[in-house]
Amino acid sequence: MAAAFSIRGPHLQCHTCHLVVATPSVPDERLRCPRCRASIHRRKPNSLSRTWALLLAAIICYIPANLYPIMEVTTLGRTQADTILSGVIYLYVHGTWPLAVIVFIASVVVPILKILTLASLAFSVERSSQWRPRDRARLYRIVETVGRWSMVDVYVVTILVALVHLGSLASVDARLGAVFFGTVVVLTILAAESFDPRLIWDRLEGEPGASVVQNGDERDGE
Amino acid sequence: MSRLIFGDKAAFVIVPDLKLIGDGILQLVGCHDCDAVVEEPNVPDGGAAICSRCGSTLFRRQRRTVEFTLALVSAAAILFVVANVYPFLSFQMQGQVTHTTLGSGTFSLWEQGQHAVALLVALTTIVAPALQIGLLLFVLGPIHLQFSVPGAVTAFRWVEYSRPWSMIEVFLIGILVAVVKLSDMANIIPGLALGAFGLLIPVLAGASSFLDPEVVWRKIGDLK
Question: How far is CA A25 from CA A10, A28, A212, B121, in A?
Answer without folding.
Answer: 10, 9, 10, 44
